[in-house]
């Protein structure tokens, strides 16, 4: 997965990261504030609505219970029972009917909530059509009102709201009917009509736009206020028989939104009051709060984005300046100047860049100087190559002149020196086969023998399989020269022994002499302030080629003289470097 911090610009990442972070925080705050405030509002609303419904239910139940008690006392009235008992003559029935009508009329006049009273009986008396007291035939009971079906299962029942005629027109009422029984004999039904507007006023309370419904113990609608058509079906979710009071959140559909349903039922009451409140009405303040927080948050986001953009540009500006300076940098040219008033990390970065440029310029000057020195060294090396070739040719000419003059010994020395120069040149190679190195040292020893006569002896013991290995050229000559020049300095005879052996992965070279010894040689050199360059040259070349794994060691021999041990790697071919 690609690391976005390596792919996109810092300014873009800085800006987008802050935007996403602040946006998520803002959404979380708005959503959290809405949820918390809406839950608190729903809880408080349901609590207060339950308290209000309980008060209204208590008041309504008091009024309706009074009606039920009045109907009970009326159904047990002796005058009414004698009227309904058919054993009387017609005159007596008319007289008792007037008494019953007057008693019922007094109830309607004394209790304003009562609109009128109906009496269902056999052989009813016909009265005025719009009178408050009406006598009806018992046979009309089943066809007159919807509540009559409940009388089959109970001795009394309430009806839902409907209209009855009166002197002032049709009046909406709630009716309570009760059977009149005497000695287990059904005599008739008394129906008390209650003014629906009085109950509606109680149900409405001080609220102006409430949606409330009153139901009986069976969940049958008795009275409602407001628009409760859709909510009526939703209210059936409440178990009116077992649940006393509470609230539920009703989910809406495509036509009706969510609602809060609060219901209340008193322990000693058969009525249940249900209030339906649109959910958006309850959470309107929460939505408004969320909107305000959202507006403030958006303003804060815009402000933070502007601040972030400003900060990101302040951060990226010195970086862009540095990148631009680096891109346009050229040695010796007119380069872009970086500001020097930064005292923070960018100031340290600019200072480091300036120091780096100074070092680059110093390095460039140094490289120019090295280039000049290298060019001079190459010229000198070419010149040095010309000198040995010139000397080699001169030796060859001198050799011919010595032969012509009859100086055979001098001719041999010149011939041997020519061979040494030829091997020393070696076409510029730094490594030569051991066979060539031994040929070089033999030429040198033979020249020294011509000088020493019979006093100098030497021996070379090298296995045939070692001859083809490679070593740095002129490795042996400085040590053999030390043995002859310094070791045999005050003597007339000397012996040099050279041997080579394979020792593991190394080549061991041993040079022994029977001279004055290492300590005396060092003392003589110190007094004369000369010598040591050739040995040091060999040491440094071996260290340069092979580090410090290999090298040269010098010892005092127990039998006298000096031993030199040289350790080199087994090279079957010259090193590439």
UniProtKB/TrEMBL annotation:
This is Sensor histidine kinase. InterPro entries: Bact_2-comp_sensor_kinase, HATPase_C_sf, Sig_transdc_His_kin_internal. It comes from the Bacteria. Pfam families: His_kinase (PF06580). One of its GO terms (molecular function) is kinase activity. Residues 377-454 form the Signal transduction histidine kinase internal region domain. The chain crosses the membrane at residues 12-34, 292-311. The keyword Transmembrane helix applies. The keyword Lipid biosynthesis does not apply. It comes from Paenibacillus plantarum. Keywords: Kinase, Membrane, Transferase, Transmembrane, Transmembrane helix.
């Amino acid at each position: 997965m690609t690391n976005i911090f390596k792919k996109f610009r810092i300014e873009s990442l800085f800006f987008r990261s802050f935007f996403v972070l602040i946006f998520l925080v803002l959404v979380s705050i708005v959503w959290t504030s809405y949820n918390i405030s809406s839950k608190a509002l729903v809880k408080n609303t349901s609590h207060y609505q339950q308290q209000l419904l309980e008060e209204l239910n208590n008041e309504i139940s008091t009024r309706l219970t009074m009606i039920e008690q009045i109907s009970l006392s009326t159904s047990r009235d002796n005058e009414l029972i004698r009227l309904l008992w058919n054993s009387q003559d017609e005159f007596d029935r008319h007289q008792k009917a007037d008494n019953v009508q007057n008693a019922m009329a007094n109830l309607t006049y004394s209790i304003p909530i009562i609109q009128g009273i109906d009496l269902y009986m056999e052989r009813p008396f016909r009265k005025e059509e719009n009178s408050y007291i009406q006598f009806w035939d018992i046979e009309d009971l089943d066809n007159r009102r919807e509540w009559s079906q409940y009388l089959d299962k109970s001795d009394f029942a309430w009806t839902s709201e409907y209209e009855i005629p009166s002197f002032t027109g049709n009046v909406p009422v709630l009716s309570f009917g009760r059977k009149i029984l005497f000695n287990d004999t059904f005599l008739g039904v008394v129906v008390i009509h209650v003014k629906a507007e009085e109950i509606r006023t109680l149900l409405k309370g001080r609220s102006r736009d409430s949606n409330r419904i009153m139901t009986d113990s069976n969940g049958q609608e008795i009275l409602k206020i407001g628009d409760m058509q859709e909510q009526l079906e939703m209210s059936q979710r409440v178990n009116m028989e077992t649940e006393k009071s509470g609230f539920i959140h009703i989910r809406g559909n495509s036509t009706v939104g969510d609602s809060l349903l609060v219901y209340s039922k008193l322990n000693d009451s058969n009525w249940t009051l249900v209030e339906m409140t649109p959910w958006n009405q309850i959470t309107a303040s929460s939505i408004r709060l969320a909107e305000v927080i959202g507006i403030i948050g958006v303003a804060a986001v815009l402000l933070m984005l502007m601040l972030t953009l400003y900060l990101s540009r302040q951060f990226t500006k010195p970086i862009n300046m540095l990148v631009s300076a680096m891109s346009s940098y050229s040695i010796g040219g007119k380069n872009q100047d970086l500001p020097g008033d930064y005292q923070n990390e960018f100031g340290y970065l600019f200072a480091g860049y300036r120091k780096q440029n100074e070092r680059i310029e110093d390095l460039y000057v140094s490289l120019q100087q090295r280039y000049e020195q290298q060019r001079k060294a190459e010229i000198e090396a070419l010149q040095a190559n010309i000198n040995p070739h010139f000397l080699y040719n001169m030796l060859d000419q001198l050799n011919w002149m010595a032969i012509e003059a009859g100086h055979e010994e001098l001719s041999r020395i010149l011939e041997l020196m020519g061979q040494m120069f030829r091997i020393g040149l070696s076409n510029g190679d730094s490594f030569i086969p051991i066979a060539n190195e031994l040929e070089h040292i033999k030429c040198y020893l033979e020249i020294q023998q011509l000088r020493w006569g019979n006093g100098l002896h030497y021996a070379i013991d090298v296995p045939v399989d070692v001859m083809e290995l490679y070593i740095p050229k002129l490795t042996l000559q400085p040590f053999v020269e030390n043995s002859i020049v310094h070791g045999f300095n005050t003597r007339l005879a000397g012996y040099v022994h050279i041997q080579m052996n394979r020792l593991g992965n190394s080549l061991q070279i041993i040079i022994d002499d029977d001279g004055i010894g290492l300590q005396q040689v060092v003392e003589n050199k110190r007094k004369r302030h000369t010598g040591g360059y050739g040995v040091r040259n060999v040491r440094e070349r071996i260290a340069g080629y092979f580090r410090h794994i290999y090298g040269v060691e010098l010892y005092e021999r127990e039998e006298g003289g000096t031993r030199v041990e040289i350790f080199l790697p087994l090279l079957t071919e010259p090193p590439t470097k």
